[in-house]
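Retro notes, structure queue

What went well: the backlog is down to a handful. What didn't: a couple of records were mislabeled last round, so from now on we paste the full input next to the output in the thread. Example, using TadE family protein from Microbacterium aurum:
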Amino acid sequence: METGLAGDAGSAALEFILVGLVLLVPIVYLIVALGAIQGQSLGVETGARQIARTIASAPDTVTADQRAERVLAAIVAEYGLDPSAVDVDVRCVDTSPDCPAAGALLSVIVRTEIPLPLVPPILGLDQFARVPVEATSVQKVSRFWVEP
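Corresponding output:
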């Protein structure tokens, strides 16, 4: 006993492949994109935390600047961040204009934009397909901070 049309015979495999591709490709892209965003956002967070610790524990301003530059270069290399897109903002909270100062609260903000994977640079699409990421870290500067 036949149930169905003769023209539908054998099309289930094609339908499974088509539906599988329609569902599988976006899910795989989503996983890859979220992995890239997560990896680089961890780099931004690590950069903010380590730069704040480095500056707060340095004995003076010159040493703090040198150490912060080395830490930033290491973080950029380790996490594959774009060095030209990384912006670091260092501020002291509620203190004199001299930053860092003894006993001050040091705030470090690291910002960058993460490009989405597999977006071609056609018509500037790669400039619009970016996810902004920002991380902030606050550290207390030692009260024994010495200015040179």
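Agreed that this is the format going forward. Reviewer comment attached to the example: The first strand starts at residue 87 and ends at 93.
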